[in-house]
Structure formats: C-alpha cells, structure tokens
Write a structure and sequence with these properties.
Elements (H helix, E strand, L loop, with lengths): L6 H12 L5 E6 L7 H12 L2 E6 L37 H16 L3 E3 L15 H14 L9 E3 L7 H11 L21 H13 L17
Parallel strand pairs: 1-2, 3-4
Helix pairs in contact: 1-5, 5-6
Length: about 220
C-alpha cells in the first residue's frame, strides 16, 4: 500500500492489518519539502511489523515546478482545504505516478491488492483523489496488466467516501498511534497548525471527539489541541 506517513494512509494500513492483510508499505521521495513524513511511514511500518520501501523520485521534483510541495519558490498556504489557495499544493499527476509504481510492484511480487488513503475531503482540490479518477485508473490497471495480475486483484481506496473525522474514528477503533503520523506540509520540527493539512487534521479530531495528540506550533482560539 502507498504510505505517506500521514493520518489517512496510516489508518488504511492499520485497518488492513486488522483484517489480516500481509502488508508492504511503499513510500515516495518526490522532492517534497515535508519529506520528514517518510520517517513517520517507517515508524508505522515498524509498529505493524511490515516491510517498508522508499522509492527515490527526488529528481522528479525538478520537473514539478509551481507546486508549493515541490517548488521552494512557492509558499505553502495557510487555511482550509476548501479554500482556492490550496490549489497551489497540487502536485500534477502525483497519485497516478505513485499508483502506477505500486501496481508494478504488486504485479512483480504477486500481491493481490494495492491500497491508498484518499478521502472525500481531498475531492475539492485534488482531482486524482476522486472516485472517478480511481475507477478509471482501476480499469487501466486491469487492461494494462491482463494475464499478469494475481487472482482477485483489487485496487482499494476504502476511505474515498469518508470524511477525515470518519477516518480518525476508524483509526481510534483499530489502534492507530496518531502521534506517530505526520500531516504538515511545511515540514518543520512540529506541525505548524495553520496550513491546509494541519487545519483539516485539527478539525477531524475535534469533530470525531477524539483526543488529538499532535503538537502544533500555532494555537487556534477555540480549537482544542
């Protein structure tokens, strides 16, 4: 499964492990400014006793100018995911690239599924997190690997219709160590507390009624940490 070290993918990993899946976590260094997330993916893999591989796509970042995640000249915006400013955090075709590599690895190893953690909160800004994209990619995968996929092979996006708060609740149920997940796009020593992913993370814990163990550098009045 594709593991960023974030809350969503970590919850997918624990959800699958809870169902008896044998996991291999696949992470990507694509030149992202918050590459410290890779260390958190390693932590999650360690907790689950799963293999963890990091694919080096760091040179790819040079070709992806204009995104706040890969271009040092573009500032990571503060605010909520619903705001138009979050468009600057789009990395073109990111999920298609990652899913393609994950599918190739699955075919080579005989794995019977590839999973990733897209959810409904991503849909407004990220086209490659939408159900329509996922369904088309699944069709391309079946066509492009006909005769080579493991029996019953599936592409899984189990939370694609859920809110972030719903994912937090599932994470609580399956025992995700939330303190060992990373969301912040700014990649500082602690979560900044105000960028899009931090705002969404704060909100999700609050709405779910789950204690948020995250340390934020910026407090928001009226929002529990």
């Amino acid at each position: 499964m594709i593991a960023s070290g974030g809350l969503d993918s970590s919850t997918v990993a624990y959800w699958l492990a809870d169902r008896g899946s044998q996991l291999m976590l696949l992470s990507f260094d694509y030149g992202q400014r918050h590459r410290k997330e890779l260390h958190y993916a390693e932590r999650i893999a360690g907790h689950l006793g799963a293999d963890h591989e990091v694919v080096d796509l760091s040179d790819l970042g040079r070709l992806l100018a204009g995104s706040a995640l890969t271009d040092p000249g573009v500032q990571v915006p503060d605010g909520h995911y619903s705001e138009a400013s979050m468009r600057s955090t789009v990395v073109p075709n990111r999920n298609a690239i990652m899913l393609s590599i994950a599918v190739a690895a699955a075919v080579s190893s005989g794995a019977d599924a590839v999973a990733f953690g897209a959810h409904s909160g991503d849909h407004a800004i990220y086209p490659d997190c939408r159900t329509s994209f996922f369904d088309l990619f699944a069709a391309v995968t079946r066509e492009g690997n006909e005769g080579f996929l493991a029996e019953g092979f599936e592409l899984l996006a189990p939370f694609i219709g859920l809110t972030k708060a719903g994912i937090v609740e599932i994470g609580r149920q399956v025992g995700v160590p939330f303190e060992d997940t990373w969301s912040c796009y700014k990649g500082g020593e602690v979560h900044c507390g105000v960028c899009g992913t931090c705002a969404e993370r704060r909100e999700a814990f609050q709405v779910a009624g789950v204690v948020d163990p995250t340390v934020y550098s910026t407090s928001v009045p009226g929002v529990a940490r």
